[in-house]
Amino acid sequence: NAGVTQTPKFQVLKTGQSMTLQCAQDMNHNSMYWYRQDPGMGLRLIYYSASEGTTDKGEVPNGYNVSRLNKREFSLRLESAAPSQTSVYFCASSDRTGRRGNEQYFGPGTRLTVT
Amino acid sequence: LAKTTQPISMDSYEGQEVNITCSHNNIATNDYITWYQQFPSQGPRFIIQGYKTKVTNEVASLFIPADRKSSTLSLPRVSLSDTAVYYCLVGSTDSWGKLQFGAGTQVVVTP
Fold first, then answer.
1. Which of A48, A90, A107 sits opposite B97 (nearest CB)?
2. Which residues of chain A lie closer than 8 angstroms to B104, CB-CB?
3. Do the Cβ atoms of B87 and A42 come within 8 Å?
4. Mean pLDDT score of chain A, rounded to an integer?
5. Ramachandran bin of B9, using left for φ above 0, alpha for ψ from -120 to 50, beta for the remaining angles
6. Are the C-beta atoms of A56 and A48 separated by less than 8 Å?
7. What is the mean pLDDT of residues B8-32?
8. Which of A11, A83, B77, B87 has the CB geometry, 3.0–4.6 Å to B104, for a possible disulfide?
9. CA distance A110 to chain B (A)
10. What would the pLDDT profile of A73-110 be if each residue is shown by its tens digit?
11. What residues contact residue B90 under an 8 Å CB cut-off, 6+ apart?
12. B109 near A57, Cβ under 8 Å?
């Protein structure tokens, strides 16, 4: 059981370049999330997918797009990277049922630098 | 989403009990209180969740008074490996994952 996996682990982009961050989970969870974490700060929700086929904006969606490819995979795309998007990106999943409905499982993160 | 306030940092020695109090004055009836732990260069990890009174699991206890306007995470007999950032979050399990992470509390455990 790998849990939540993310690729790549590190990435350097030039301003204006595009890239897709990949996330997959093997826990059969319905809900998946993308967060960003800037130095010394908490996580901020970018987009989430409550279930397969649905996506919705979080707190900071501008400059990003997402795709819930299937139940396992949820990708985050930067169409035209900007230095303000330099951050660590975390993917998470949860089944949102029962007494631990707010329990999310996080991936190891992708450290992105935009120059 | 209810705003939370917690101390920026706390220091402790190995073997001591660490108590982190979180204030959430605007907590709603359907909100749960959830705590996460984050080590450097890792994603957060769920520790414990509660609604009222006391919840205990293998790593921590969560104390919630009757008015639910605050909560206290208690880490018994901490070790060096408990050095981490601890986040208090408040939200409904119906909020579709709209968890709001504040800056958290940096706990440093020294020998």
1. A48
2. 42
3. yes
4. 92
5. beta
6. yes
7. 94
8. B87
9. 10
10. 999 999 999 999 999 999 999 886 655 567 889 999 99
11. B1, B2, B4, B24, B27, B31, B32, B33, B34, B100
12. no
- The whole-number pLDDT of residue B94 equals 66
Q: Quickly state the pLDDT bin for A7 (edges 50, 70, 90).
A: very high
Number of A:B CB contacts under 8 A?
67
- N-to-C CA span, chain A: 36
A50, B36, B96 from B91: Cα distances, Å: 15, 13, 9
A99 φ, ψ (degrees, to nearest 5): -75, -15
Report the side by side order of strands in the sheet with B105-110: B9-13, B105-110, B84-92, B31-38, B45-50
Residue B19 CA, chain-centre distance (Å), reads 9
Tell me the percentage of chain B whose pLDDT exceeds 70: 93
Rounded to whole angstroms, the Cα distance separating A93 from B64 reads 27
Residue B49 has pLDDT above 80, yes or no: yes
Q: Give the distance from CA A53 to its chain's centroid.
A: 16
Tell me, what's the pLDDT at A85?
Answer: 97
How distant, in Å, are the alpha carbons of A37, B2, B24, B66 from that of A34?
Answer: 10, 21, 25, 34
Phi, psi (deg, nearest 5) at residue A15: -55, 130
Q: How many Cβ atoms sit within 10 Å of the Cβ of residue A65?
A: 14
